[in-house]
Amino acid sequence: MDLVINILFVLIVAFFLINKLLPVKGVRQISTSDLKKELKRKDVQFIDVRTPGEFSRNNINTFKNIPLHDLSQKASQLSKEKEVVVICQSGIRSNKTTKLLRKMGFQKITNVKGGMSAWN
């Protein structure tokens, strides 16, 4: 019986971990090489959800820094009518951000896979 409980526990934990890392349904996923083509677009809002310290050390000029922990308060600075392209250091925080933006009613959301770590 203990074995069954342990297996169920491991499966539940694995499900939650996988669910956290999977891309959000309806969110476009692009690579950093795709991003290079997107940067010229004027109809897009580019946000970097890393901390101000991370952003100041290395950033892409087109991106505005709105740290993930400030997003709830600063989301009003973003238009729900325009696409939002999100980047972080590795893709984990930006994926989390896409879920949060979805809940806030944003429809056009793009996540940059691999984040700044994949940026050349």
What brief labels describe this structure?
120 residues
Structure, briefly:
The chain is an alpha/beta fold. It has helices spanning 2-21, 32-38, 52-57, 71-74, 92-103, and strands at 28-30, 44-48, 64-65, 83-87, 109-112.
Description:
- The protein is an alpha/beta fold and 120 residues long.
- Helix content is 41%, strand content 16%.
- It is built from five helices and five strands; from the N terminus they run αβαβαβαβαβ.
- The chain has a five-stranded parallel β-sheet.
- Helix 5 links the parallel strand 4 and strand 5.
- The mean pLDDT is 90.
Oligomeric organization of the protein chains: single chain
What is the string of helix and strand elements? HEHEHEHEHE
Strand content: 15-25%
| Number of strand segments | 5
Quote the average pLDDT: 90
- How do the strands line up in the largest sheet? 1-5-4-2-3
Give start-end ranges of low-pLDDT stretches: none
Q: What would the principal axes of the Cα set say about the shape?
A: elongated
Q: How is the main sheet built?
A: 5 strands, parallel
> Radius of gyration over alpha carbons?
16 Å
Number of helices: 5
Estimate the helix proportion, in percent: 40-55%
C-alpha end-to-end distance:
52 Å
* Broad structural category: alpha/beta
